[in-house]
Amino acid sequence: MRRVFSRFCEGLQKVENSIKSKGHSFMWNEHLGYILTCPSNLGTGLRGGVHLKIPLLCKHEKFDALLKEMRLQKRGTGGVDTEATDGTFDISNIDRLGTSEVQQVQCVIDGVELFIKMEKALRAGENIDHLMPMSLVDRPTAPEPDKIETIETSARMKIPTLENHLRLPQNDKCLDTT
């Protein structure tokens, strides 16, 4: 994908130079970036997509949340508003505005690499929770306050405090922070 992106940039630069040689330029706004025919493409206008066959991952209960978390979108391989066939999707960046072209392409690369790892793990019958972003990991709920066991402190038990860990030693090379 990096090589494709490099070739794309080289080709785009040639097109832009040709347009400039005729006294024209692409429409650009300091706040919105490139102005294109579709408002959803304001900014970079870049949609970097990869066709990816992930028949098991796409059925996972957290797949849509995973896409959202990773700032990616799925389409069928026939384009906008098409269905995926055999679990094959066009995976691309959602963002066009607020991030650079390089960040957008890297987002797709990172997502595709993770999706491939997840699909392989699912094919092997493994759980993929350890591969999920932390925001999507199910965390155990906290126990009710009346069910929490308390620890009695006594002279036999010394519990370190944060203050003890943060206090710097005092000598001629250290500042006294107390």
From TrEMBL:
SUPFAM superfamilies to which the protein is assigned, alphabetical: Glutamine synthetase/guanido kinase
UniProt KW ATP-binding keyword: yes
Keywords associated with the record: ATP-binding, Cell projection, Cilium, Flagellum, Kinase, Nucleotide-binding, Transferase
Record-annotated Phosphagen kinase C-terminal domain positions: 1-122
Gene Ontology MF, one: creatine kinase activity
A GO BP annotation: phosphocreatine biosynthetic process
Gene3D superfamilies: Glutamine synthetase/guanido kinase, catalytic domain
A GO cellular component entry from the record: extracellular space
Source organism, top-level taxon: Eukaryota
Record keyword Kinase present: yes
Signal sequence range: none
PANTHER family in the record: ARGININE OR CREATINE KINASE, CREATINE KINASE M-TYPE
Similarity field: Belongs to the ATP:guanido phosphotransferase family.
Pfam families for the chain: ATP-gua_Ptrans
Protein name: Putative creatine kinase, flagellar-like
Residues engaged in binding ATP: 47-51, 75-80
